[in-house]
User: Fold these one by one.
Assistant:
Number 1:
Amino acid sequence: MSDATWTPADLLKMNYDAWKAWTVQSAVVLGIFTALDKLKDEATVDSLAKAIQSDRRATEKMVTALTALELLKRDGDEISLTDFSRRHLSEESRDYLGYILVHMHQINPNWTRLARCVKSGGNARSLPEPSPEEIKDLEASRHRHFILGMYSVAVLQARTVTAALDLKGHKRLLDLGGGPGTYAAYFCAANPGLKAVVFDRPPSEAVALEILDRLGVRDRVSFQGGDFLSDPIPGDFDVVWMSQVIHGENPENAALLVKRGVEALRPGGEILIQEFVLDDDRRGPLGPALFTLNMLVQTPGGAAYAYSEIVDMLKGAGINKISEIKGALPPGNRILTGFKD
């Protein structure tokens, strides 16, 4: 790829592609393909979880991702191998390639230390463990880069999303769990009569204010810190926007978060939820299927939810007029909308 052909999407895809490799490597380490080969036509998510002695819900997420990668076939709860995975990923086959994949899996942690190896000139195993002070600095850096990373991703599609939404005539918008407030800033820039509140955890405030200053909307977008599951949330908004928030929560808390968003609306107000959304058959799309594994390793109970699950959360919060807003969104991204009676 030459310099002239690189795009921001290429750069992000290159990094997300690592998730594909880690998913397949982990599936081989778990013995998923070999177990399915032995189960033959009797394989289900339940029988697979029993065969590899794994958690059922986590196994479901892995099966969804492997199906989206076209290494498994799925019909409801029944799962089976593809011809390729039977030949190259089952230890029952003489063409098994799993040994090298397990080796790659075992050396992955060393690659996460590459930057430190370059600085020191030593190998990963020779690096000293971080000091308590370094660990503290790392945690602070991690949150800052998470919030700025959300800005980097959101800014790539904010114009497209803004163009897809009709916010004309609205006066007050709540960006619930909005992190750096990127979307709130773009919505206000495109709608001169609109003001917004970004509600997120207090550690996000310093970065959010930097971003709002950078985008020139500090006078129309304010930040309020708090825990969106337990702290008071301001109300009487025309619009509540929730972008990529509920996937960080378990099903109960995700439903609670949607309910709290609806409660912040005035009667007749609109809730908008943008998420990585799985198809109801849980065969894909690939992006959300891999992202649900990212939530498995990063959060206590988060997940990419299926379309019908998000609809049920909205209905449970009292929203009945539910539809989907179409737009040129990244694959797997969908925006659901509904109005409060």
Number 2:
Amino acid sequence: MFPKLLLVSNQDLNTRGALKSLSADELGKLSSLAQISTALSRADGGFFEVANTLLDKLLETLGAERFAVLLHPPNESQSLFRSQGPDGVTADPFPFSTTVVNSVKESGEPLVTLDAMDDQRLSTSVSIQLTGARSVMCVPIKGTGLLYVDNRLSTGIFREAELSLLTILADLFSAALERVRNLERLEAAYAALRASQEETVTRLAAAADWRDTDTAQHINRVGEYCAHLAHWAGCSQEYVEEIRMASKMHDVGKLGVPDAILLKPGRFNEEEFKTMKRHTTMGGKILEGSSSPLLQMAHRIALSHHEHYDGSGYPEGLKGEEIPLEGRITSICDAFDAMCSKRVYKEAYPMDKVFGIIRAELGRQFDPRLGQLFIEHRDEVEQIREQFSKP
């Protein structure tokens, strides 16, 4: 018999009521570990944030010298360590008792020894002799590895109550990790869905764009101009990313415009212009009714990117802030790129002329605040144009 070595199952911990007769010191530790549990529940930056939170809080609350989260193969090289020494806390790896660790791995049960050097089962262990470990605890972390704690200076500081608490904590840690993994899986699924949605948007927008321009880079340039202008205007990052994609759909309604009109090399007559203007409402019809926030924004842009700030635009003659913000942004960016680009009916305008026209149209065709921001960031605008004009 080895009375100083306790192998305790989870069932034993529950049935023996280890938590029912805690001393004031043990109750203090329980309170501290409850705080650790709260900290773990708030850590959501991934495995290493949760694991580092655990070790840092243990270091603050448990009277021990060294702590480790030892990961199962093939991730053992990513195991995390904390040591309390005369020069402060370090995160450097330290030698631990492989005898204790292997015992817990094989049994799947928590382990505590009051004095490893005086324990007949452990005292002859080479790893115990090399590490000089005296008080040791080790508990399994479901599906992850082990939580290992030791102290080389004192004996008897870990008993059944501390092991109970550490076991509970390992379970909480495991639950926190599972929560993080679930979040990561959801984020990955959302990212994949978003990528698929964006690909569909880009392909549909390109189908319309290829009929009207020399290059499908037009939609990419408009997307970048819109994203940057939204950022300069102080919009949220979420809005910036949304308009980057949604604005690419501004001319999707041109799929319904006959080539004879769309590709006409001269000016439109009155009837042709009426037909051409219908690309806004046709785009709205194509995009309406979606539950996707991205397509809802694209719907608003398709309908409003030819509205003018003074109310002289189409299709509804909206005025000022009656025009959705994304419509006012896209109006500037689309007009800028159209003026800079060669079309079947015109040559590209010089850059000075383009910015001069935008300045002249502030408060008339264009939102004056947004148009001024666009002008003030001319250098960045021109860099975007150059970047997205390459084949």
